[in-house]
Design goal:
The structure is a homodimer. By secondary structure, chain A is α+β, with helices and mostly antiparallel strands. Chain A folds into two domains: about 120 residues, 60s Ribosomal Protein L30, Chain: A; about 160 residues, Phosphoribosyl-aminoimidazole Synthetase, Chain A, domain 2 (Alpha-Beta Complex). In chain A, about 30% of the residues lie in helices and about 25% in strands. Chain A is built from eight helices and 14 strands. Chain A has a seven-stranded mixed β-sheet, with helices on both faces. A four-stranded mixed β-sheet of chain A has the order 2-7-5-6, covered by helices on one side. In chain A, strands 3-4 form a two-stranded antiparallel sheet. In chain A, strand 5, helix 3 and strand 6 form a beta-alpha-beta unit. In chain A, helix 1 packs parallel to helix 3 and helix 2 runs parallel beside helix 3. The interface between A and B is large, with 84 and 83 residues. Strand 2 of chain A pairs antiparallel with strand 1 of chain B, so a sheet runs across the interface.
Chain lengths: ~350, ~350
Amino acid sequence: MIYSENDRVFLGHGSGGILTGELISNLFFYYFKNDILEEMTDAARLKIKSHFLSFTTDSFVVDPLFFPGGDIGKLAVCGTVNDLAVSGAKPLYLSCGFIIEEGFSLYKLEKIVQSMSEEAERAQVQIVTGDTKVVAKGQCDKLFINTSGIGSLIYRNKGIGKAENICNGDKIIINGSIGDHGISILSARNELNIKTNLMSDCASLNGLIENVLEKSEGIKFMRDATRGGLATVLCELAEQKNIGIELNETDIPVKEEVRGVCELLGFDPLYIANEGKVVIIVKNENAKEVLEIMKKHPLGKESRIIGELKDINPGLVWLNTQIGGKRLVDKLSGEQLPRIC
Amino acid sequence: MIYSENDRVFLGHGSGGILTGELISNLFFYYFKNDILEEMTDAARLKIKSHFLSFTTDSFVVDPLFFPGGDIGKLAVCGTVNDLAVSGAKPLYLSCGFIIEEGFSLYKLEKIVQSMSEEAERAQVQIVTGDTKVVAKGQCDKLFINTSGIGSLIYRNKGIGKAENICNGDKIIINGSIGDHGISILSARNELNIKTNLMSDCASLNGLIENVLEKSEGIKFMRDATRGGLATVLCELAEQKNIGIELNETDIPVKEEVRGVCELLGFDPLYIANEGKVVIIVKNENAKEVLEIMKKHPLGKESRIIGELKDINPGLVWLNTQIGGKRLVDKLSGEQLPRIC
């Protein structure tokens, strides 16, 4: 580690002067090192083979900054990588903007930067440009990160970003259990004195997604189920495409601990945030093939078909419940868990 | 206006659910409207003719949000447009990420979004993707904005991003008076009871810069003099390229009011932030030509040659003062004015 536990961020680290320069060369260049970043221009100069690009942005305000399974840095890389991947792009380059509260630990900042660098390497993307602002004590809560990203839109012809060709009979697949991220964050907050062994599912899904897109022709739509959870992805899709969506409760993987905490607090796992789950809509005849492909990837071992598209009840999402009833799945109103990502 | 003065931002506006959806369709789509944004994918799908791109990011935490000559929204667009332009790129697409404090006025948010949309139109860029997070009261100070941007690196062969070919005798040009932005912000804060008629110089410089790059072959380097001011740009350049830089104090345009406030508070205008000033290094024989081109543009009327590069004192910047002395211009240590951009 470069910094020790007593080192702090000063306002001057955001001044653009000597301290900013030190932070950039000691910390950011050291961990993010790549030729593009080290040109030290205000804007990164890129050469991209494709004319078709995907471009996305996300700000991360997760509280706490460190949680089982990750931290805000890993989350910021995964979130932006996943948004690019589900649009049919190969993620290539990320930017990163820090807003830091005066007095924040440089030691913790270094851990976060290190974690970003490790996740970027795992996801095979480069962090090529950045910005640091420091605000006075009390003007932000510890640290916020924005990551924006550019990808090469390799799979643009599959129309997956826009769900153009979805129809009755298409199957819905998810790559594992829902709610792990949200409930991990909640228990890491310690406010409710809930103890679990849960870990956030925070992961870069581009490897898994690329496998599926390379090997199957049946993919019609993909979306990562983050804020608002699985329910929000499907409710938006049903509404936008005016199609019915049927889910089978018994097929949706939910870990016992997630279910337990949700029951205790009156939450519904369908609405809890994930950070490593992708919802895939696939042609009926390709569903098994896609499932097999997904199960071979470490992040897809628990993949399941959880429902299908219907030409009844257009615009609605419903659940065939465990006890044999039907329950309407509504859009999330209000906020279940603020600062989950 | 869509919102009235009593409308407020709730935590639910950042949930990813119904309120987020309303904010996106009512506010962001209305003001930023363009086909790419309205595809409603998580990542914008772009088609760019060039393989050479410029990519940059900036977070804006300026306080106050509204100031003479602009607001945080205009600033966020100009800042990112300018970073792209000085790298030799034609700015094309921006992302925008909001971090908003619970309870913030929706009416003010609308004014800021409107202002972003107006400045984007002026600069001929499109805002194609975005993100909104809301944090609880007290966890951020009103509103922060991140804008990242992509440009097509049209003038990449001129090497201006990297200052590769600068040498003894090259002239330094700036497009007008320094310190206007910083001192406007300072007086808008009202803490010091300073009243001025100053306006921030906040402006998108891509039009001016494109003119210069189109019409002259002599440009060797460009940088916008934001945080840390003119001094910081030149000190960094002198150090990186191990060259001497001589400035003539009498040639550097400083408004009377800026000079006055600086004297009062012990600031040096050389270090005060600008948001509409570009420093250009140009071959000696092209300097007059470039100056003429610049003066024809509304944002370049006050352009001046303020100094030149020297093969003495490598790594240093010095000022020939008004009274005939020489003063070393050092890098900024510490922070003069936090939250200036």
